[in-house]
Amino acid sequence: MLLVLSLALNSWILACVQAATPAIISPANGTRVAPGAPFAFKYQSTADYAVSSYNYTVVLYTEQPKFFADSLDYAAGYTFGQFDVPNYPAVPYAHHPAPPYFIMPDFSQRPGGWGVGASISNATFYLAVFEEYSNGKPRVGRRISLSINNIVYNGTDRDEEYLPFCLE
To answer: Mind listing the UniProt keywords for this protein, alphabetically (predicted)?
Structure first.
């Protein structure tokens, strides 16, 4: 009887396991990235025991979105792409894994068409990851998580600790 109770308790504990906390591991908050430079990218998916991840989209916002409503000028930025992680049974094998690094766009360059570039330094940008997942709890549609890290685009300010020390 004790063995049956122990097995039931272990099954209950496993059923209560929460999903991994989605997070952008790198770049870390405050990372400085120059235009055209590669930067490391690593994302911790919510996929875990009893949680299925379907895909995630990586977007760099160059300004915070204004509000959530129809808008011709909702936000500005760049989309790095949509990726997936291997997790059974949703995505047994990743078909579109994220690369280990991205290249920071040079926003001073013309993007083509009617687009015109603009220069900016020491700007706070927002790297966002939207992940679609399900956890076995009823919901109309997939759940969507949002993870955000701030980065400094074209950082030119030097921290005080790196400034040359001068004696007069």
So the answer is: Signal
